[in-house]
Amino acid sequence: MANNKGGVGKTASTAAIAGELAHQGHAVLALDLDPQAGNLTAVLHQRGYRGATLLSVLLGEATLEEVIVETKDPNLDLLPASLQLLSQESRLQRIPGYHGLLRKILPQLSGYAYVVIDCPPSLGDLTSLALTAANVYVIPCQAEQLAFDGLHDMVRAAGVVRENLNERLALAGIFFTAYHPNQRGALNHGTVEATRRLYGEQAILPNIRKDMAVPMSQATQQTVRAYDAGSRAAQDYESLTHAILATL
Ligand SMILES: Nc1ncnc2c1ncn2[C@@H]1O[C@H](COP(=O)(O)OP(=O)(O)O)[C@@H](O)[C@H]1O
Ligand SMILES: [Mg+2]
Description:
Blueprint: H1 10-23, E1 28-32, H2 40-44, H3 54-58, H4 64-67, E2 69-70, E3 76-79, H5 84-87, H6 89-93, H7 101-105, E4 114-118, H8 125-133, E5 136-141, H9 148-164, E6 170-176, H10 185-199, H11 213-219, H12 224-227, H13 232-247
Helix pairs in contact: 1-13
Bound molecules: adenosine-5'-diphosphate (ADP) and magnesium ion (MG).
């Protein structure tokens, strides 16, 4: 889940899609690469988490199993993020070929059908680490933000990773979160139409409607389906997850 803009629903979508896959019966690992407050670790595990992260694993100081924690969903585990990712990123950068490290260590994990990665809101080293390891990337957007420039930058950055580090990387698609077809409808609709023209019909995934169930599920540290399986957001994320799986 990648977009260099913040507040577009990356974290909400990572939790919801990982939760959908877990609900389908798959063992899922959600991997948090955002060190900042309000990250996936805060919404699925613990606010203010200060412990080990993927970085400890990449630096050879811990194994993946030692860092992974459980969530309230028995099929969904989490590899947490903390400020460690920020404070020690420079140590990572000194390792030759570090971009390929995540891709190299993920196969050491057994038992997970899917790994869903939540990227930080930047196109920095942590995002390229994720893009180098991934089979597909998905871009959540908010139509109201008119985030076109950001979208171009994101797709271009993924193209650079594809050319240099990970030739199998594919764009599964772009979707709009907190979508509200009535309120400021013209703006939302116009943004979606413009995105469709630029990236093609096949790149447009189902929208996620604006729904208080999303912030409520985050505040109560559970997936949106666990919070309210009948909510608009849970229904929309179910459709979105099917659409993403169809691209794999
Ligand atoms: N479908 C939605 N309906 C209502 N609020 C949403 C929805 N999706 C995300 N939000 C809210 O928008 C804010 C930003 O979402 P978040 O997932 O943290 O974005 P990002 O990870 O891209 O920074 C959060 O407060 C979240 O609760
Ligand atoms: Mg986030």
